[in-house]
Design brief:
Elements: E1 14-27, E2 32-39, E3 42-46, E4 49-53, E5 58-61, E6 67-71, E7 77-83, H1 85-88, H2 110-127, H3 132-149, E8 154-157, E9 163-166, H4 175-191, H5 198-205, H6 209-220, H7 224-242, H8 247-253, H9 259-270, H10 274-280, E10 291-293, H11 297-309, H12 339-352, H13 356-365, H14 373-383, H15 391-410
Length: about 400
Amino acid sequence: MLEKNIQFKNGQPVDAFLSMIENVPLHTNSVLEFIMVLEGTLDIRQGYQSQILNDGDVFIFNPPDLHCIHSLSKSNFVLTMYLDLDYLTKFCPTIQQMSFLCDCDNQKGSSLDMLRHMLSDIYFRFNENEDQDWLDESLNSLVQLLLDSFQLFRWQPDEHNNFMYGCPTGFHINPFHVARIQSIENYIYEHYGENITLSSLAQHEYLSTFYLSHFIKQATGLNFQQWLSSVRSEFAEKLLVSTDKNISEIALDVGFASTKYLISHFKKWYGCTPSKYREKTATLHSHLPHKYYSCDRMKAERLLNNYRFESSHSGKDLREGEVIYTSLDKNHLPQKFELLRLQHFLNLLLQSGEICQFMNEISKSQSGQVLSAEILAKELNRSSSMEPNSYEAFLAEIVHYLKTLGDKDKE
């Protein structure tokens, strides 16, 4: 079996630990997995794509993606965190049908800072046996961050015209289209082994084939046939690694009309034929041990603690007056006791540009110091009732506080 059995202790929806990783062979999970490198270098392979992770980098593994991990440094410190997706449905009922991506090369800035902060804070709270109410608040905040900033990605051609997925700088899509992409993706993953066509997909989505074709290309960077080919090749990979089926059987199982089509499409995505891939990955099979080793926990926790308390917004990733699209839930406002969620909401609000000007003015008046979302959340918690009945009232309260802060600084 390729699936790694994750055991959650005492009915908790979280498992988090620090270790040194040498090698984790090809496997799948039924849980959401986060890897955060605190020191050292890891080689992450997921499907046909490889990525190098260095200090501070985070990677998200979605079930049932096939992946492996290999250390490229003599030693490392790594945070590994597993989350129970069944439990997370209480915060987002459709989360099991979603995929998340952290592209550290392109998603630099406040969202990545916040993700590091939340993962480190959940680790320490989890190991300090905080109560369930706190855990639910933290997991809800993490889920909202994933939905806001790490839900979408796009395929792009590299210099050799091979498509690799990532999150290009400035890429965004409106929430209605996000739901449509999820619906299309779910349909393809459920029916990849059948003779599905753009026309049958268009009927399922109640769209014209012309509109659907252009929508898929614009939203994903691939056309429909390329997307279907990648999904079928992905499932062929799992059968190549986990079974002794011959290439012809695998071709039919994953929906290719013949062995020739499987070989042609698989080579486009994985760079080699299915037979060669099976040969190359023989040493990565799931029967090999998962090599996690104990590490200097005190040093690892000191490194992790830096991310727990660093500012969630450096102020360096936004130009003055720049407006960045964010999915801000104006109908579900954070309250005073929800510090992490309040901080995340303020972080998104800052990115939206609505309080960017005020934040910049106050930061300049404070001898160049940056007034971060984290600092603002703590100050609002201390000096405000934080029980607004509308988004407009919430925004007015923040602006009033910022003006008051500016007036005090002028005195």
